[in-house]
Write a structure and sequence with these properties.
The complex is a heterodimer of chains A (208) and B (210). Chain A is of the alpha+beta class and 208 residues long. Chain A has nine helices and seven strands; from the N terminus they run H-E-E-H-E-E-H-E-E-H-H-H-H-E-H-H. In chain A, strand 3 and strand 4 form a beta hairpin. Chain B is built from seven helices and seven strands, in the order E-E-E-E-H-E-E-H-H-H-H-E-H-H. Classes of the chains: A alpha+beta (208), B mainly alpha (210).
């Protein structure tokens, strides 16, 4: 067993469980990798808590237009139909496809919103160093939900659907599409550049 | 003593546990422990990781066959009815001259699920048989499987968008067929299988040898 002085610098690679001396392996401002499995341990490109909060706030502002405003407008034989994400869920529900409706609702409506709420809760509390319960639980939930947000895939789906329909009728992008793209960008930026290590350290200090 | 000597050793063998959700290193003490930082139960390795992964993967695999054979959607347009399976939809996209998009859909909804299940089965089998070669390759494979899994949802979203936008009653409308739901289940099950698998298991045999 190593002495406690050294143990403070120790870290285990989350992917291969190699015990690493962080004081040797992790250098400030460089990408540091696990020497055995080459998994990324630390990346210099990370947002500060403040910038992360700004990112989430942008996402939250554009969330409601992205969900409720029409993403595509479709004109066929003089009739126009507009499609929004909520409209999509309702249409699936009305045609008794409850399973698919549930998946679309969960991955596009619920998960992004809950994720943003959780991270806003965690980052504001940590920024002002308020001692709060449920910080660790919230951040844990945020991490496990992040697999299930599928905004990026939906955008590719819009593209494929638009191409499938392009021959039959006129298609127009709606306001919702622009809002959706901003929501997608801000949420991708925020999720990819979130400094999880720092947040966990701060939670350890201020949480519970 | 240096953690990075000639013999790389796992944290577990040196008496430490790594919390799976917050990656905190905890000295091992007692049987059931909770992470002091995130209050989650800490195990040396995810319990029953291999068995649960196999179960989810196999159920995904068995659903994959009907999901590809049965139709996923029906399009009513001006009196004609067109029922598509995943593959016939892709072929139709190629016929209307959209080969690049057809390739994307083919990769996302046929190639990726199939290769993902094969790769995961290979990884699980290798862990089960305690294989010691190509560990690095298997770790890389696992990373790709984890990253790429969600993109198979593409077809489900395309169908949902079509249902949401093509609603002109008798003139033109889209119906969802059972295979769409099956396919969604395949994607979810394989995603869960990849998540349940503990990637540290790939390296455990190596620790014992060196």
């Amino acid at each position: 067993m190593l002495n406690t002085d050294k143990a403070a610098h120790l870290e285990a690679c989350p992917e291969c469980d190699l015990l690493i001396d962080a004081s040797e392996q992790v250098r400030e401002g460089y990408v540091s990798q696990c020497p055995r499995c080459l998994g990324v341990l630390e990346h210099p490109l990370r947002l500060s808590i403040k910038h992360n909060f700004i990112c989430v706030l942008t996402g939250l502002v554009f969330y409601f237009p992205a969900i409720f405003l029409p993403i595509l407008k479709f004109t066929m034989l003089g009739n126009t139909e507009a499609m929004s994400i909520v409209g999509c869920v309702l249409a699936l529900f009305a045609t008794t496809n409850y399973g698919i409706a549930g998946i679309v609702f969960f991955t596009l409506v619920l998960v992004p919103l809950v994720k943003m709420m959780l991270i806003i809760f965690v980052t504001t509390r940590l920024y002002y160093s308020v001692k709060t319960p449920f910080l660790a639980v919230s951040f844990r939930w945020y991490n496990s939900l992040s697999h299930w947000g599928m905004l990026d895939i939906f955008l590719l789906g819009v593209l494929v659907a638009a191409i499938k329909l392009a021959n039959d009728a006129e298609l127009e992008p709606g306001l919702g599409l622009y809002a959706f793209i901003i929501l997608l960008l801000s949420s991708a930026l925020q999720t990819q550049l979130l400094n999880k290590k720092l947040l966990w350290k701060l939670i350890e200090r201020h949480g519970q | 003593m240096n953690a990075m000597g000639n013999r790389p050793l796992s944290a577990l063998q040196q008496g430490y546990l790594c919390c799976r959700s917050c990656h905190k290193l905890i000295p091992k003490a007692g049987q059931v422990m909770r992470c002091p930082r995130c209050r989650r139960k800490v195990y040396p390795r995810v319990p029953y990781s291999l068995a649960q992964s196999w179960a989810l993967l196999l159920s995904g695999f068995f659903l994959y066959i009907p999901a590809n054979v049965l139709p996923i959607m029906t399009l009513y347009k001006g009196g004609t009815i067109r029922t598509d399976t995943i593959m016939s939809g892709i072929i139709n996209l190629m016929h209307i001259g959209m080969t690049p998009i057809a390739i994307i859909v083919f990769i996302a909804s046929i190639l990726v699920p199939l290769l993902k299940m094969l790769a995961l089965a290979m990884i699980l089998l290798a862990v089960q048989c305690k294989r010691q070669c190509n560990v690095c390759l298997r770790t890389k494979m696992y990373r790709v499987v984890e990253f790429v899994g969600r993109w198979s949802m593409l077809d489900i979203f395309v169908i949902s968008i079509l249902v949401g936008i093509v609603k002109f009653g008798r003139v033109a409308s889209v119906d969802v067929e059972p295979a769409a739901w099956l396919f969604a289940c395949v994607v979810i099950l394989t995603m869960l299988a990849a998540m349940r698998f503990d990637s540290r298991l790939i390296w455990d045999e190596i620790n014992e040898y060196e």
